[in-house]
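Let us work through a complete example step by step.
Step 1: write down the sequence.
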Amino acid sequence: MAHRVDGIRSVDFGVTDLKAAERFYSEVWNLKPVASSKGSVYLRGTGYEHHILGLHQRNHGELLRINLSAPDEEAVNAIHDRVRKTNIRKVEQPAQLDEPGGGYGFAFQDPEDRTVRIIAEMAAHSPEKDNVERPKKLSHCVLNSGDQENAVDFWCQALGVRVIDRTKAMTFINASSDHHSVAIVKGSGATLHHVAFEMPSIEGVMRGGGRLKDNGFPIEWGVGRHGPGNNVFAYFIGPEEMVIEYTAEVEQVDESYNVRGPEDWTWKPGRNDQWGINNGPSKRMMDAHNVRFAEDIFHPA
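Step 2: predict the structure and record it as tokens.
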């Protein structure tokens, strides 16, 4: 497909205590605040993205929006045309964005009312040197769906992405050289499963796990290595009971990648990853895989 989404930029979280959330994501999770406005804070990793996380004061803990990237204005306009042709009810017109980082883009709600935004030509930083203590970028976002097949079809047809792997429960969606930028999970409805931040190395995942533990945030699952994506992982529960992940060594793919199915991703009894050294997700983590989406397209104050 000529014009398509080419990655994930950032996510916007709604939080009930903005100061506490900013403190956690800057002092514990180790992102760096780069901009703020009334009721909002934006934080970056060490990569080129202007920010990878937006925090916004809300009445509920919720996922407000997923921000995807497109290569240029022409691609944004072409994707907008395809989204409109799917008869989606709520679609903004592409325009220059008046918020930190700027860029050109539009927001819409997908068939399960998730708010998604496509952005091109956003302001960028010069990447910093890799820091074993800090995330580089947003790696991926995993979404629950009450209609997984329809959700995957929409994302692929409207946004130009492709299915890269499937397990019994999850479908992994590829948009760049990273194995996946989004995954969609069979569930009871459209909620957030988790958000993953990429560390520069396994050492970074391990040090991050120690830092979280020192600050009262135990590892809820991990450390381990997944099957699809081959990435190292450690999961935690952050503010508002949101599941967040440190990951590293995400598999790099190209068009020659051999897409695999559920029969290819099976483990020995008692295992849930390639290494088999962890005890699996905690009950708290399993219960937390259900963060609501904001009910309408989010516009910063």
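Step 3: interpret the result. Helices lie at 18-28, 73-85, 148-159, 202-214, 283-288.
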